[in-house]
Design goal:
Layout: E1 9-17, H1 21-32, E2 38-40, E3 52-55, H2 57-66, H3 69-73, E4 81-86, E5 91-96, E6 102-105, H4 106-115, E7 122-123, E8 128-133, E9 140-144, E10 148-157, H5 164-169, E11 175-187, E12 197-203, E13 206-212, E14 217-225, H6 237-247, H7 253-260, E15 268-274, H8 277-282, E16 286-287, E17 290-292, H9 295-298, H10 307-325, H11 328-331, H12 337-373, H13 377-390
Parallel strand pairs: 1-2, 1-10, 2-7, 4-12, 10-17
Antiparallel strand pairs: 3-6, 4-5, 8-9, 9-10, 11-14, 11-15, 12-13, 13-14, 16-17
Amino acid sequence: MDKAMDSVEETRDIVIVGGGICGLATALALHRKGLRSIILEKSETLRDTGAAIAIRANGWRALDQLGVASELRQRANPIHIVREVWIDIGKQQEIPEIGECRCVKRNDLIEILADALPPRTVRFGSQIVSVKVDKENSFPILQLYGDKSIQAKVLIGCDGSRSTVADFLGLKSTKMFAILSVRGLTSYPNGHAFDCESTRMRRGKISVGRAPITDKLVYWFVALPWTPSDERLTQDPEVIKRLASSKVSGFSSDVIEMIERAELDSVSLTRLRHRAPWDLLLTTFKKGTVTVAGDAMHVMGPFLGQGGSAALEDAVVLARCLAQKVRAEDLSISGNQVLINKAGEGIDLYVKERRKRLVTLSTQTYITGLLLETRSKLVKFIVIMLLVILFSDPVGHTKYDCGRL
């Protein structure tokens, strides 16, 4: 994989910005449809931030279409139950998981997707500064650090919640939840005693989640209220780990031990972001032959465990829609208005198909986040009623099928 641009100016058929889950999945989906692409990744290596990710039934359908699900299944145990525990009132609820669900290491998912791509698909150390449109042929031009630039016939931004491509499209800035999330992994060399279930425990304003990945590896998170004093978040894993430990002092001994034994290189701290459902409803997500996918399009809170699965859906749908309108030979024609029209039509199909799904998903996620965020009993009652009215099937979002690639 190349680590630097070969020349100051070059033209590429399809350029994907961001080598995370969505960027790699999109490149793989396009490859399966016979459309070549390159990925520009600002890091020097594959990124695996976030420790682990829950993939629910809809995400596994997408992974099956990408052809990598079987290998990934061998690295993560199935989860059969979601258990909600309210420690303060001594109450718990057991919810059967509908369909396949597994918690997988992000690094495993990233590596499997990357290994399935053709050689030299990912260009590391390639950070874009800005995007502009070539006045002569209407194709986007990406300006990179180091005074290098690339012209793309099709540009797809998979560059996360602070997306430069989203800024070019004029998307509104992401909004913040008043919630901080600490995430990490804990290894148990002799095996752990946790059941194959995803457990969420709440005590006061603190929530702790736990999900086994394998018989010896567990993913966990601690969610806590954000305050203005947290404006400058630390990235020191030792400090983050101590913060998490201090917040779970009233939880069970196995929770305290789990965090104390966490692998330092897996620990991270973030403030949760989201795109408002009404922004997803009204935004065009397209300008010429430029669009976005994954968090750059629809970053949402982790409350339904759907952020990663939705990004995998994006990859399948985008590749399918683009391939319906654009053939590999079309991309070999430079500066062709016909190509611009065809690619634009494919992107239009993609945006139209994804919009309803994403607005519904982000609305349920947003309302669920409000329930966790608010302290007002009145607001909690209103939010619960909204969830009951709008989402009578609370796990209906896992039954979605993005279709064949």
